[in-house]
Amino acid sequence: MLRTKLLTAVTATALLTAPVAMAQTAPAPAAPAADAAASALPPISTENVIEVLKAHGRFATLLQAFDQAQLTETLATRDRITIFAPTDEVFAALPEAERARLLDPANLQELRNLMLYHVLVADLRPDQIIGARGPIATAGGLEVDIDGTGEAIMIDSATVTDPAIDAANGGIYVIDRLLDPNAAAQGDAVEATDDTPPPTTHVKDGDEPAAGMPSRASTPE
User: Fold this and answer.
1) Is this model's pTM higher than 0.85 or not?
2) Which of 17, 64, 76, 82 is deepest in the core (most CB within 10 A)?
């Protein structure tokens, strides 16, 4: 069930935890299409986010990637999870060599970082997004930019194509492209060169991601 309170990662203080304050910085009232997205929520689910993804039948590659990154059990059992979910069509649009490279066990940590960038350790409702915009820390520690001030909700450069799909332990936003944690990391590097100290929301080498989301995959003995 989507909660009224947005819980942030242990390593971050997310701007979206105060949706009313964020809305004050928005340039205009929410667009009709965005309002429709907020009101078009499906019935409350008794299934966790992984079970809901499986039931929808269009996230096989995403589920495979979560399995490969050793995140499936954590996402299924942890409370208050939001997933930005690219469909199978999004993965199919990648060059075959790139898709195979990402799913190669030799690149497990890169895949894990990518998947964690598509997860929030927070139950983010549409009414916390509509009319607001700002960064929020992902499960891996890097920030993703969320913009609910236009006709469609934007997650970085990706468009939310389906309103939040409810799950027992959080929600799912279907997006039309993969998010890019490398772009977020590059933004962190630029900020680090400024005179102003970098925000504590940015994960540097050796920092841990959100509680319950270990940064590195376990390696069998």
Assistant:
1) no
2) 82
The count of other CB atoms within 10 Å of the CB of residue 151 is 13
Tokens found for residue 28: 């205009």
Q: Which residue type, as a one-letter code, is found at position 20?
A: V
CA 133 distance to own-chain centroid: 15
Residue 183's pLDDT band (cuts 50, 70, 90): confident
Q: In CATH, which of 1.10.150.120, 3.30.450.20, 2.30.180.10, 3.30.420.10 is domain 15-192?
A: 2.30.180.10
User: Are 172 and 125 spatial neighbours (Cβ–Cβ below 8 Å)?
Assistant: no
Residue 106 has pLDDT above 80, yes or no: yes
Burial class (CB in 10 A: 0-12, 13-18, 19+), 210: buried
Q: Across residues 188-206, what is the average pLDDT? A: 43
